Amino acid sequence: MGERTNVRWVVVAVLFLVTAINYADRATISLAGPAIARQLRLDAVAMGYVFSAFGWAYVLAQLPGGWLLDRYGSKRVYAASLTLWSTFTLLTAGVGALASLGAVVALFALRFLVGAAEAPSFPANSRIVAAWFPASERGTASAIFNSAQYAATVVFAPLMGWLIASFGWPSVFVVMGALGLSFVLVWKALIHDPKTHPLANAAEVAYIEAGGGLVSMDQARRDDGPDLRYVGRLLRSRMLVGVYVAQYCINTLTYFFITWFPVYLVRERHMTILKAGFVAAIPAVCGFVGGVLGGVFSDALLKRGHSLSVARKTPIVAGMLLSMTMVACNYVSSQSAVIFLMALAFFGKGVGALGWAVNADTAPRQFAGLSGALFNTCGNLSGITTPIAIGYIVQGTGSFAWALVYVGAHALVAIVCYLGVVGRIHRVTLA
Questions:
Q1: Which Gene Ontology terms of cellular component type are present (predicted)?
Q2: Does the predicted model carry a pTM greater than 0.90?
Q3: CA torsion angle for 78, 83, 84, 85 (degrees, to 10)?
């Protein structure tokens, strides 16, 4: 068969890039929000509804998106998803030309549509990794695409800030929308099934398949419509329920950092907005490093003969323990100590963010898209609950002390899930 090719790493590089665009498009509204609010004369309540539009649609569209992946395959659905969310992002640039009420309605609708269009993306990422990578490399591959969420903040936030300052807020949506649409061509050229990829040879496909890769996943598509009975069957698995609840808890850490963390730095730690903006990037960098290291460490354990359960659970538990160090911020006064502890906590969150690797390890072969969608639905419910809960805590107590305890407690629950609920990690079989 000749020397084995390594096209799978090109595939995961494409997943990394498209996921970075995905997260950057999510962040466009938060960075452009103040300028939009001034131009459209929107108060905080109105902007709150606009900010929430993405999250509600993203959660609601997960299960339909998962069915579409299982029915039509990852390549086609992801290409359509990328085209749609980029188009809706591009169209957002024009809402300022509408009358006040019309602009608000259009802005909410477009953000809702972006959320719905992005829904299949992470289940598709997990599905593609399950098809292209043997179990011994799946942790690293999943960590690479998952770490793009941190890279997006570091790379695109300064770019978008410069665009807003130089050309106005609509320019952000034009540039990001155009970037996404142009990347569709890259996607179609480089993403194929393992057995049909023009650059992958038989030796690589055989290596992937021998290691547990689902190389024929998209050759056996389901022709029936979405059936919620399969969701019930997935939820009857104690292992999967433990994984889903843990992902909700892990994502609580993520949503704290991307929503309330800058506010915490300004209100509780009395930093200027400018300084808080730079400081907020530090945990993102640490999360990126931790995310890649967690995946590499997990796969190294697997290659050294440890079980899949040990290889996945060890970095998850260690990472969540590190994340809990954020609670120590309640007992320090210096800004440098706070920055260090928060960076350590987000590094730990990155190390422990192996949920997508676990999903790729456990999803039933014929329902990989649906399982990933259910996993992502549960995980992203925290995007709705976390900002609201922390808001009530801060308003009721006048400080962030109990808010940090709230977030840290979720890391502890994630540990309990993996050690006491999940049990042996294995692929679920649904007859």
A1: plasma membrane
A2: no
A3: 80
